[in-house]
Amino acid sequence: MSDKILEVRGLYFTYDGENVLEDITFSLDRGEFLGIIGPNGSGKSTLLKLITGILKPDRGEIKLYTDRISYIPQKITSLSYNFPATVEEIVSLGILSKGMLKRISRKDYNLIEQALDKVGLLELKNKRLGELSGGQQQRVHIARAIVSNPELLVLDEPTTGIDIVNQTRFYELLGHLNSEMGITVIIVSHDISTIAGEVTTMAYLDKKLHFIGKPKDFFRKILWPVELEDLLSR
Amino acid sequence: MMDILQYSFMRYALISGIFVGILCPIIGVFLVLKNLSLIADGMAHFSFGGIALGIVLGISPTYMILLFSILGGLLINYVIRRTKLYGDTVIAILLSTGLAIGITIISLARGTNFNINAYLFGSLLAIDEKELMSIILLGIPAIILVIIFYRPLLYITFDEDSAKASGLPVESINILLVILSAVTIAITIKVAGILLTSALIVIPVATGIQISNSFKKTLLSSVVTGIISVILGLIISYYLNIAPGGAIVLVSVLIFLLSISGLFDQKGYYSKT
Predict the structure, then answer these.
(1) B contacts of A93 (beta carbons < 8 Å)
(2) Does domain A1-66+152-234 have CATH number 3.40.50.300?
(3) Is residue B102 part of a domain?
(4) Model confidence pLDDT, tens digit, residues A44-93
C-alpha cells in the first residue's frame, strides 16, 4: 500500500476573475521527487503556494499528511542581497517551525551546524548572507529548510540566475536529500533538462495538469523534445 | 553634565529619551528591512487627527495617539494587501487624511487652548512625572515583547512566505508589529514631535545596517546609536538653548553620515568592493 503525503482534488484558483488553475487532481507518495514544468504564467508558483498553505484554494481540496513542510520561494536570493544577517542567523530561522517561541538550545545549534555541513557551508556560517554567491545562498536556504527535519521540501525555480556547474551541484544535493534522507521534494522549474535526471515523477502544468507520471513516459508518450521546446517557449 | 541633572525636568527628559533611544531602533529595524520605513511617518501623521479629537473631547492625547496609530497602521496593512497599490501610495493617502482630519477639527474648535507646536515638534522638556510613568508603563512591555518575539519578527521580515509555510501565524505577528510601532510612536511624539518621529525610527537603524555584519549587531549598534543621539542631543540643546527634538535628530544624522563616510568600512557591507 502506498503511503501518501499529499492529495490534491478538483483544485481551482482564480485571480482577478481569471482561472489560474483549473481542476487540478493528483497525489504524491512519500519519498517521491516531483518536478513540475510549464510555461510562464501557467500557475506553477500558485500551485506551490496553495500546497504550502500560503494561499487558500477557491474550490477543491488539498490534503497534506504532514505538518513538517519547508518552502523556498522564487527569487529569494535577490531578497537576501542587502539583508543584514549572517548565514547562521538565517539557518536558525528554520528551527522556528518546531514552535514560534522556541529558544535555540545547544542541541539546535548542533542541528544548525550539521545542516550547514551537509550543504558544504559550515566555514561560511559567520559571513553576511549578501557576501555569498547566488549558488551558495541557495544552499543556505536548503540548510534553513532541512534544519527542522522536514518531510516535504517545496522549491520554486531555485536555480534562476545560477551558473550551470552550480545548478548541477544543487540538483545533486536535492537528489541526496531525497534518496538518503527520505525527504519528499516538489520542485518547479522551466528548465526541463536539469530536473529530468533527478526527479522520480514529472508533471506538466499549464492551467490544467496535462501530464503527471514517470519522466521517461513524459518524453516517450506525451511529447517529443522538439515539440516540448516549442511549447515551453510560447 | 551633572549640573544638567539637578533639574527634575532634565532627568525626566533624559529617562524618556533613553526609552525612545532603545525602542525606536528595535522596532525600526523590522520596519526598515520590510521596506516600510515610511509607515511610521504615516502612522504619526495619522495620529494628528486623534490628537485634535482628544483635545476637543477631553481625552488624553497619548491614548488618542496610540489608538489612531494602531488604527492607521492596521488600515495601511489592510489596504496594501487588498488593493493593487504600492505601500508608499497607501501611506501617502492615510498620512494626508489624518492631517486633514486634525486641521479640520482644530479649525472647528477655535478658541480651545491647543498647543499645536508641542505635538508637531515635541515637548521633551515638558514631560512631567505622570507622563514619564506612562512612557515607562508603555515602553517596558513593548521592549519585553520584542525580546520574546525577536525570531518570529525576524522571520516575517526576511520572508513572509517561508515563515507562513513553516506554520508561523504571519498575520498575527504583523499585527503585533503594528501595535508595537504604535506604542513607539506614541512615546516618540512626545520627544521628537509628529514631524521627526520617523527620523528616530529610521536613522539609527540605517546606521546600524551600514556598519554591521549580522542582524544581532545591527540591532545592537542601532540601539547604541539611538541612545547616544538622545543623550548628546539633549546636552547640546541644553547648552545651546535649542529645541531638543531637532538636536537629537541632527546628532543621529551626523552619526549616520560618519557611518557612510568609510570610517567603519572594515565591517560594513561595502568593504568587499
Answers:
(1) 151, 154-155, 158, 162-163
(2) yes
(3) yes
(4) 999 999 999 999 999 999 999 998 999 998 877 666 677 899 999 999 99
